């Protein structure tokens, strides 16, 4: 049996620190993306017998090779403690005891892990795993401090002991939605999720925007409605795909907006925050643009404009509306970075097209925080660009990614290759799009970026690797 111990401190009282860990979404927020992908958190959180499911990354893989891992909770040895034990995974044994105790200025967190490999006797594997655990817990500590600082700025009810807001979220199963829901719930707000399937958990409620089905009482319950739904645009722009992309956004947004407008004035939510995208500016940029720029040309620009118009209908009913124009979200959990990183690791990475195109990127943490900022900041309204302030070109992105992975960036992907994959229109508006976008409104309204530079984002999302 191999033992691993880690001690850290956070500037919160022990009871508050334990309570934060006991909120839905805590495991999602705490887990470094390169180390763990959360499949399903335990419910109720930390209750004995509840099971958490995840995919844990192999050491040295930068989060690109993951194995299923599940653990079951049990009571800990003291009041503020709990235990995770292996239920299923690539080890023969795993027991993780978490203990929280008061110290001057906050809480000391003691993590004690006992594990064994199968088969035994592979000392080099044990050393590799311990090195990976050290990196993981250092990253976990950084993430928790980062979230504590953000929640303090947002006057989180968990810390102020004030009553939280009621947040209704559509699209919470996606990469961004999962993080948004976790940020709100760990802050102490009351979160409900709109789901298309049959609800399985007490905080889930059913809707079916394709059939126009929604319960108006669910919207009347909410102080804020957040909508992140929509079919993925990472596909060939066939006639059928275009219609699905458009209808999945417009129909669902219109249903939410019209239902909110139909409520009695006293029952209406205070704010509606709806997804949009920087694609609204078109695929060709001569100069950097902020939220005051007009819509551009192309299919995505037209969809985004119609999408935002559908969301803006709530303004006629006195509901504050925010449209989050998201850039390319960089995370090892999915999307652009997850597709590009393996190519670079194989020595086959490089710029896309000419490399001169602007890449309007944002970290997963920052786009999730942008939604929380928009809901809780009363003077944020209208379009908001969720992009990092560090504008880069495709060639600069390729060079930064290659440097982080210690690989060359010598194999450019010609434009015709992306056309073969995405079609002519898809390649032009996605992979080869030239987008230079500024986060003017986020900065004006006091938002502080977690990852303002590409280097910081890659370190957060990919870790140090081997």
UniProtKB/TrEMBL annotation:
<dbReference type="InterPro" id="IPR010099">
    <property type="entry name" value="SDR39U1"/>
</dbReference>
<dbReference type="InterPro" id="IPR036291">
    <property type="entry name" value="NAD(P)-bd_dom_sf"/>
</dbReference>
<protein>
    <recommendedName>
        <fullName>TIGR01777 family protein</fullName>
    </recommendedName>
</protein>
<dbReference type="Pfam" id="PF01370">
    <property type="entry name" value="Epimerase"/>
</dbReference>
<comment type="similarity">
    <text>Belongs to the NAD(P)-dependent epimerase/dehydratase family. SDR39U1 subfamily.</text>
</comment>
<feature type="domain" description="NAD-dependent epimerase/dehydratase">
    <location>
        <begin position="167"/>
        <end position="376"/>
    </location>
</feature>
<dbReference type="InterPro" id="IPR023393">
    <property type="entry name" value="START-like_dom_sf"/>
</dbReference>
<feature type="domain" description="DUF1731">
    <location>
        <begin position="413"/>
        <end position="460"/>
    </location>
</feature>
<dbReference type="InterPro" id="IPR013549">
    <property type="entry name" value="DUF1731"/>
</dbReference>
<dbReference type="Pfam" id="PF08338">
    <property type="entry name" value="DUF1731"/>
</dbReference>
<dbReference type="InterPro" id="IPR001509">
    <property type="entry name" value="Epimerase_deHydtase"/>
</dbReference>
């Amino acid at each position: 049996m191999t033992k691993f111990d880690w001690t850290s401190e956070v500037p919160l009282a022990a009871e508050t620190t334990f309570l934060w860990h006991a909120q839905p979404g805590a495991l999602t927020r705490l887990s470094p993306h390169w180390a763990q992908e959360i499949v399903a958190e335990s419910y109720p959180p930390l209750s004995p017998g509840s099971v958490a499911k995840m995919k844990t990354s192999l050491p040295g893989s930068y989060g690109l090779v993951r194995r299923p891992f599940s653990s079951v909770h049990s009571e800990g040895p003291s009041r503020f403690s709990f235990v995770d034990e292996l239920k299923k995974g690539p080890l023969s044994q795993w027991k993780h005891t978490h203990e929280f105790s008061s110290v001057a200025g906050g809480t000391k967190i003691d993590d004690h892990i006992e594990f064994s490999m199968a088969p035994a006797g592979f000392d080099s594997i044990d050393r590799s795993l311990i090195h990976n655990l050290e990196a993981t817990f250092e990253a976990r500590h950084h993430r928790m401090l980062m979230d504590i600082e953000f929640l303090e700025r947002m006057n989180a009810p968990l810390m102020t002991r004030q009553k939280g807001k009621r947040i209704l979220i559509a699209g919470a199963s996606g990469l961004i939605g999962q993080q948004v829901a976790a940020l709100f719930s760990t802050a102490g707000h009351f979160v409900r999720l709109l789901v298309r399937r049959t609800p399985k958990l007490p905080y889930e409620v059913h809707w079916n925007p394709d059939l126009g089905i929604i319960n108006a009482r669910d919207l009347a319950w909410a102080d804020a409605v957040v909508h992140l739904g929509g079919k993925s645009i990472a596909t060939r722009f066939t006639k059928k795909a275009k219609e699905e992309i458009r209808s999945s956004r417009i129909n669902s947004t219109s249903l939410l907006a019209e239902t909110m407008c139909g409520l009695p004035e006293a029952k209406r939510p205070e704010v509606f925050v709806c997804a949009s995208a920087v694609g609204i500016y078109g695929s060709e940029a001569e100069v950097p643009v902020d939220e005051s720029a007009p819509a551009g040309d192309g299919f995505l620009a037209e969809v985004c404009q119609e999408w935002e118009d559908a969301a803006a209908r709530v303004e006629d009913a006195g509901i504050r509306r925010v449209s989050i124009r998201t850039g390319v979200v960089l995370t090892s959990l999915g999307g652009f970075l997850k597709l590009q990183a393996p190519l670079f690791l194989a020595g086959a990475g490089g710029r896309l097209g000419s490399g001169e195109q602007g890449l309007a990127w944002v970290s997963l943490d920052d786009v999730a925080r942008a939604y929380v900022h928009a809901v809780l900041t009363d003077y944020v309204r209208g379009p908001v660009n969720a992009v990092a302030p560090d504008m880069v070109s495709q060639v600069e992105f390729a060079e930064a990614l290659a440097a982080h992975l210690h690989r060359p960036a010598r194999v450019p992907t010609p434009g015709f290759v992306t056309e073969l994959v995405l079609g002519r229109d898809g390649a032009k508006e996605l992979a080869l799009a030239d987008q230079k976008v500024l986060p003017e409104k986020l900065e004006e309204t006091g938002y502080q970026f977690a990852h303002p530079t590409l280097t910081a984002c890659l370190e957060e999302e990919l870790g140090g690797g081997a």
